[in-house]
Each structure stands twice: as C-alpha cells, then as structure tokens.
Amino acid sequence: MFTFKKKDGQARIGEINTLHGKIQTPFFMPIATVGAIKGAVEFSDIREMGFEIILSNTYHLHLRPGEKLIKESGGLQKFINWDGPILTDSGGFQVLSLSKIRKIFEEGVEFKSHIDGSKQFLSPEKVVEIQSDLGIDIAMVLDECTPYPCTELYAKNSLERTTRWAARCKQHWIKIGAKEKQALFAIVQGSVYKNLRIESAKQLVDLDLPGYAIGGVVESNDKLNEVIEYTIPFLPENKPRYLMGVGTPENILNAVERGIDMFDCVLPTRDARHGKVYTHEGSFNITRQKYAQDNLPIEQGCTCQVCQQYSRKYIRHIFTVNELLAMRLTSLHNLYFYKNLMTKIYKAIEKDYFAQFKADFLKRFKSKAKTVKVHGLVERGMF
Hints:
single chain, alpha/beta, 16 strands
C-alpha cells in the first residue's frame, strides 16, 4: 500500500496506492464530513486544484443518509461524484463531543443522535461494517478519543480500550472481507503522557495494520510537537503516519519535519466562511473596512482562480450583503493555498531543502495560532 521514496532529515515523501488511485505523501485532505465540502465547493474544484483524497465521517454518514443507501448507490465515490480515494474517520471524536449524551462500554459506545435524539450504538465491528458498506479506501478503527485534560490513569485505561477495540476491528475487517478492498488504520492515544503514547504505539504496531494515526486532544503547539517526537520512533517507517485533525500551516510544517505523512483540518473552509483568508504573508479577515477600496486580489502572485478574477473589495462587498458566493470564493482560495503548500513541501523534500523551505515560509507567514487539538474540536469540529 505505501511506497517510501526518500527522506530529507525526518521529512519524507512516498506514495499510497488504493483501489481508487494513488496519493502522493505528504498530503492534506479537504473535509467532506457528510459527503460535501462546506462553502459550496464542488469536488471538481478540488480535483482541479490537485487534491487526490478527501475525508468523510462514518458517524455522520451512518446517521444520514445511511450506509445502506450509499452502498446501493454504488459506494460513496459514486454517491458524491468523486472519483478519487476517500478516508473516513470512525466517529470516535464525534462521540467524544457528545459527552453529555453518551456512555462508553467495553462492547462499544451508546449515544443519542444529535439530529433527533434517537438511541444509537457503535461497536468496533459495526464501525468496520459501515465503512465497508461505504466502499471507501482508508478506514479508521473505533477509538476512545481521550479528553483533555485527564488523569494518567484515565488515559491509560482509555488507550488500552482503544487497543482492544482496534484488535476487534482488525478481526472483523478480515472476517467480512474488507481487507481486500480497503486499508484499516489504528489510532495512537495516551493524551500528553509520554510513557502512555509509547505504550499505545507499541500495542497497536503489534496488530500489524496498514497505517497508524496519532489521535487524542493536545493542548498546545509545543506539546503537540513533543507528542509527535516521542511517538514517531515507535511507528513503522514502511507505513503511513497520520496526524488527525491538524492543522495550521505551522503545525503541518512542524509535523512533516518530524515524519508525518497525512493531515486533515476544517480550518481552510471554516475560516473562509468567516472571511479569514490565508496568504504567504499570514492570514487576514477580508471583511474588515480597510479592504472596502482594495483593488488587489486576496494574494498578489497567487494563481488560484479567485485571485485571477476577483478583488478584495468585491469579495468584501459580497460578504457584507451575505451572498453565498463570498464563502465559496474564500473557501476556494484557502484550499488552493493549502494544496500549494503541500506541493511545495513535497518538492522541497524531493530536492533536499525542506529545512530551508520551512524556515523561509515561517519567516514570511505570521501565524498567530496558539492552540491546536489533535483529532480535536477546534480544527475538525463536529458539524
């Protein structure tokens, strides 16, 4: 499934091969939680930008429209008219978000639907079956996404349950034949405790699954970097490494530097819907009065379709009159910015100048982000 190509320091490039196509690593996945990208972005738009894979969510698709309908439609790719690979999160984080209306048992998780309050139950086996019916390419195991903060004892019990659930997922994945059509990734837990992250990684690597993710909630950028640094040495070099729910451009660069291959985050489109746009000089809010007479594009020199056609003053104007086009244009620009960043990262690793590229990029990019959450509420969100 994963072909390693080369390294520059710990940063690396490779390729993941799936039934629906190949994906160059490292990569960023646009979020299509319910089978659509927010901001009125079409899949043809992101394909044109060069994205090779998207992320959808098992929990949401299970509730609406249901995996059986999607299976009858020929699988999620056909249902949403996307011809590339898809990764689905298992719903572990979404269930964490329902803390007031869910109960965790050894058998699985019982919760009430956020839609109509109906009682629902997800077991490791059920999650595997749902993702098999969806027909996607990379499936995540059901995990207990450890809350932050939590005690070391809670984190230990949580990661051990996650390991047991991962083992059950693997067994069922093989039993129903899903192994023949999709990869199954485990999720390392352990909160901010080094010994527990290492223990979780070792337990999950013993299961010998096709890929591994780092999940759980993390407090700050510095703590996130620490978690990656002491977890990575215990993950296989010959398999993909996925940092869930991250993040800002700075987070991505720091994680790539430490050996991470895969990312997802709602920030490009969530920020766009509130007028925040990304440039190589940092981000700014285009709805501010200072841009009312600004004839420049969002970013000078940007080759995205938005910057080639529209001015800041026009985009600000359509925000002020609540036109949906405003959110579409800023979403398109931000996604293009993220894809362009990943393309430049790939080339920098390929040509052995990643460290210099990172330093130069961050010198220009005035990131003010102070908090992150892996597999978390800030970046990924529930809705």
